[in-house]
Design brief:
It is built from 7 helices and 14 strands.
């Protein structure tokens, strides 16, 4: 058996936790699990490392977790909290020694190119010119990064179509308020599931905690972690109410699953 790892770089909402100007129990908590950067993960298998989304704290997240090299970046959608660290990808051009593949669907790529057009120039940066060097790879169905196939999982974020991703036994579905019936089929048999669970109250664009638990039971993964967590959910008190195989994720958490290999 080989293994695949999912490292949570950030597990908070678009504001991050603590929030500016908020002095609630979560935002002033001494528990480090209640400090949450914007949502992003690294998926690793063999020598391959892939970042999903580039948050505004990407540099801090990667330094804190020892992420020195990545092979590609994949985007779920193009909201600001998921893309505004894109310029920091230029460091991975240096550490990796070349251009970096960027996977996004047509809608997300149109936003990325409009906001960061300089990062997609075909010519490599000149000596002393500091900008990312990115190659757009279109997500139009399942795609390959290294030895693993990435399967896009269509989701709804309010009325906005976004993507989750299944990579072997792991599925990552942040910023979701509805999982279409066909997408549940794509999630069948996963060992580790990551779902959006923002707060207790029903939200138009995100699963609330109750909806996330219901979706987790429907998928039936061995382990489910919740992300995109607001300050409404304190780490330990919330986990005490959840089933043993469902937990709030936290920044720096590493989850591992087995990948069957052919003999």
């Amino acid at each position: 058996m080989d293994s695949i790892e999912l490292l949570f770089l950030g597990t908070g909402t678009s504001t991050g936790i603590p929030m500016i100007g908020c002095h609630c129990e979560t935002c002033t908590s001494a528990d480090p699990h209640d400090r949450r950067m914007r949502p992003s993960v690294v998926i690793s298998y063999g020598a391959t490392r892939v970042v999903i989304d580039a948050t505004a704290e990407l540099r801090l997240q990667c330094v804190a977790n020892g992420v020195d090299v990545i092979d590609a970046v994949v985007f779920t959608h193009a909201h600001a909290d998921h893309i505004m660290g894109l310029d920091d990808l230029r460091r991975f051009n240096v550490t990796g020694g070349g251009a970096l593949d960027l996977w996004a669907d047509a809608t997300a790529h149109a936003v990325l190119k409009r906001r960061f057009g300089y990062a997609f120039l075909s010519a490599p940066p000149k000596l002393g010119m500091f900008r990312p060097h990115l190659r757009h790879r279109a997500i139009e169905g399942p795609f390959q990064i290294g030895r693993m196939t990435w399967t896009p999982v269509p989701l709804l974020h309010g009325q906005m179509p976004v993507l989750g991703f299944r990579v072997g036994p792991i599925a990552y579905c942040t910023d979701v308020s509805t999982i279409p019936a066909e997408s549940y089929k794509l999630l069948g048999g996963v060992q580790i599931l990551v779902l959006d669970a923002s707060q207790h109250k029903v939200h138009p664009n995100h699963f609330c905690l109750e909806q996330a638990v219901e979706a987790a039971h429907r998928v039936g993964a061995k382990k489910t972690y919740f992300t995109h967590i607001s300050h409404a959910l304190r780490h330990e008190p919330t986990n005490a109410t959840l089933p043993p195989n469902i937990r709030l994720a936290y920044d720096g958490l590493l989850a591992t699953a087995d990948v069957a290999t052919r003999s």
